[in-house]
Every structure is written in structure tokens, then in C-alpha cells.
Design goal:
Distance between the termini: 54 Å
Strand order of the largest sheet: 1-2
Order of helices and strands: HEEHHHHHHH
Number of strands: 2
Strand content: under 5%
Number of helices: 8
Helix content: over 70%
Length: about 220
Amino acid sequence: MDSLLQAAEPLFAVAFTLWGSPATWLEVAAFVLAVWMVACNLRVNPLAWPLAILSSVLYGLLFLHSRLYGEAGLQVMFVVAACWGWWQWLRGRAQDGAALRVHRLTRRQRLMTLAFIFGAWPMLAVLLQRFTDSDVAYLDALPTVASLAGQVLLGRKAIENWAVWLAVNVFSVGLFALKGLWLTVALYALFAVLSVVGWRAWAALEGRVDARHAHGG
């Protein structure tokens, strides 16, 4: 881990100072890629997935440097999930065998999502406390497991992914502020706003798709 951070050391050069804390070139690049990714998600554009992979790699390095090990590990899972989500958007199928489209979860699926998040949260927090020097284990673990759930829902084009991301982004604003990652705080505040925009956009898109199906389109 230390050798990886040492190899990436040039990326941690300070680009500018924001509210008294340095913003590195790595954080700037990750910020730009992440905003571009969300813009593509809003338009259900598959380009979002390779952008997600690149931004996750950069954020993984940033979070390792900040001792946010849950968030860093999450970026590895994000890379794997992004490969899966990319394939889902290009080749995936709905339960009825039709091409995957924007849809809503059933009540049972929503409850299962919540059960996963609140069940996995304390387990991950205990692991972070026991095996890392994290000083914010429980605060780090909650958005980590919720983000994994959100990524899966996004890959399956479930509208509820935006609700999960909204909660994650609002919570993460406080977490990253605690760590002094102010550019990332600004990013996640923007993400929170874009989560609402995405929620509304996908809900409208689902309505148009349902209307076409109702009329045999």
C-alpha cells in the first residue's frame, strides 16, 4: 500500500488551496471525471462507465492517502461494478427478457436494499476498526455499503439508485469535511443536487417509456 502511494506521489502535488486545505492535482482530475460521469448517467449514456472506472482509480488513491480505507476499498468494488454495469447497459435484460430499461423496484426489492445497507454497515465498521487505523470507522462504513447498493441499482437502471445516491452524497459531505477534503466536499454537494435532477429525469423517462408501451410503441 505504501509503495503504491509513493509511486503516485507526483499526483499529490498541490494544485491550489481551498478553505485552508490543499487540493491536489489527483483530486482535481478525479473531480472532473466524476462530474462528467454523472452527466452521462443523467442521459443514460454508457460512456459513464469507463469514466467511473477512471475516477474510481483516482479516488481510491486519494482515500488511501486520507486513511479512509472503507472508501478506498469501495473504489476497487466500484471498478468491478462499473465493468458489470457497462455490460448491463449494453447487453443486459429485464426480468421479462426485454432490453434493460429504466424502471422502479418492487416493494420487496426496496426492503432488501435497505436490509443489505443496514446489515452490512456495522459488520464493515467492525472490520475497519479491527484491521485498519481508521479513525472514523462507522462514519466511513455507512456510505461505503450504501454506495455499493447504489452502484448495483444504477447498473440495473433502477430509479431508486438516485435516492440511495442522494443519501450517500449528503452524508459524505460531512465525512469529507471532517477530513478536510474540501474539493471533494464541493463535488459531493454537487452530486447531491444532481441526484435530485437524475431522479426526476429518470422518473420522466420511465413515464415516457411506459406510455409508448401502453400505445404499442
